[in-house]
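Extended Data, panel c. Modelled sequence:
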Amino acid sequence: MDVPQSAPSGWVLAGRLLVSLAIAAAVMTPLWLWGGVDRATLEMTWSRLTLTAWLPAFALHAFLYVVRSWRFAVLLPADVRPPQRQLLPVCAAHTLATFVLPAKTGEATFVLYSGRTSGVPAPAAVAALVVSRILDMASVFLGLGVACVAMHVSGSWPAVAWFLPAGLVLLVLAAAGFALAARGDSLVAAVGWFVRVLRLSTTKPGQWLLTRADAFAAALRQAGSPMRLASACALSLLAWLVIFLFCAILARGLGIGTQIGLAEATFGSALAMVTSLVPLSAFANFGTFEAGWVGGFGLLGVDRETAVATGVGLHVVQLVHVVFLGVLGHIGMALWSRRS
């Protein structure tokens, strides 16, 4: 239940807005200093891309934020769940931090932002984030596996004999990922078991760890409950379908060739997503994303120059979208922040 509260004054709103924009600027500054994105790269990318290719891609990207914020709302307990209109700017600002900061350090901002703007308790926010990321990984494996099987069945790539076995293995990994999302609390319970076996529960650090582990396990059980997880799985599949369509449209618009269909685009972009998950990636994942993109599409016969150009181009377009929507997210968080 919302607690009645007085409307913040104009000065308070202005202060919140300035603080949020300052945080956004602090997050983006390292990118422009060390991320390797210069004006020439931006101009070259946008000169290749037509308006008819960019507009659907941008619409899909914006819709993706709606789906992901909806998934966060589903995974949060009802008694602490804020309205989705509050989670939407949180999701946009969190995506900016996750995309730009290296070594995946930006992931923690979801806990910070959702707590600051909507009072979501940290264990519930962490549980929703962890389950979301497990579902993302399972969905990537599923998309990559389905693409491999589809390309094998189509017979378009007879020289690649391992598409079918690789696809089947990936489908098994996807099933394991979805199962883990349902029982993520078992991993945390193992921590408590080790603490008790080692007889650390009588020490203050052991008691602190047990308390935190029990709270986190309870939050994971809530997030992984059958009805809630079923909705989150459906939203995850929708989100990744949107991502693969986004990549296919931009790849075609940037000149990758008409021989690349949805299955091929899913294969190449999913490999790029997997390599970009390396925790030692650079700012905005530049380098690791392109490695997977070039490797995947190179296997499908796209020459290296075209693969590099389209991979960098798509990454730059994605970056522009993330920065623009992320700044809007910070503005939205400043407007939605509320006093207890």
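The two ends are 12 Å apart (CA to CA). This feature is highlighted in the accompanying rendering.
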